[in-house]
Write the structure tokens for this entry.
Amino acid sequence: MVAILEKRDLRDFDWWTTMLAVAIASFGVWQIHNALPSEGYWSKQIIGIVIALVAFVVVCFTDYRRIIEAAPIFYVVGLVLLLLVLTPLGVTVNGQKAWLRLPLIGQFQPSEFVKIPTVLMLAKYFGSKKGNVLGLREMLIGAAIFAGPVVLIMLEPDAGQTITYLPILAAVFFLSGIRMRYVIIALVLAAIMIPTAWFVGVKTGKIKRYQQERILAITNPDQVDPRGYGYHTIQSTITVGKGGLAGNQGDTETSQSVLKFLPEPHTDFIFAVTAENTGFIGCVSLLLAYALLLSRMIAGAQEATDRAGMLVIMSIVCGMVFQIFMNIGMALGILPVIGVPLPLMSAGLSAILSTFVAIGFVVSVKLRRFVN
């Protein structure tokens, strides 16, 4: 098998997926520079992309089936990292204790990276499942695998990262043959429990005032202090609107991000910066690039030779689609601000590294589509 791969590696390597990912990441560096040209985040992002590409190549040319076999080890290591975040070793930023400070690397967010071991662990379990329909026992085991990292992330607390894990479990359940009655029961319970939890949480104070205002900034913006928790949403929508059709063409004198009106322009609101600098044309071009990248990844899932490989790819795809939807929704003011990065675009080593490693698994699966 090794000899076969050596002959086929370069010929069957998915160059299009790789080039699309690198192109979007490079576009992201440009927008990070536009957001904060004097603060050096763009140069750090280039270093992060180089590190991520090294990890990407290693994953691409490693048999994904061997990595999936070792998934329990990676999963346990991930849980240990999340536990370390909750100890005095954890670093608190903006009220969230979600980072570790590593030598040479600096701040690292384990919750971003532990998605990959979670995906691998779910793919290992459900990939070996016999039959085409999920039983209750299998669903409970899958939920337990999912709950491990999610509970620890909720203790940080980081609601944004917690939510990004949900589409991973949903994708695995759906593709593994969940019964329709369980879907209906889940939807009914959600329709009952979410409003109830909101009402009880507000009355008891479990849902903090700032959390309430993040929702009210979307549902009833007139009730929110525009200089308080409504500030992010208001400034983001102003920034997006300033871009017009073709953007402000690098006009730093009136830029919302350069003049410090837009908070976190290089991370949470990188799409707003993109809209301001490249306008409607640039935003549509970025969405088309994402659509092409995701379509290539879905094609890889269709070509996978085993269920586990297919589950890995589709879990990654669903996770990326959800993050793109959430981040852009935040920037446009139609979703609450919960700190979800835009894949390949937002600044941060943890985010760019985890995304490229995830795409590396997609390429690894496609690379072995002719090998049994």
Remarks:
- The chain has two domains: 1-63+208-367, 70-176.
- The chain is about 70% helix and 5% strand.
- Residues 70-176 form one domain.
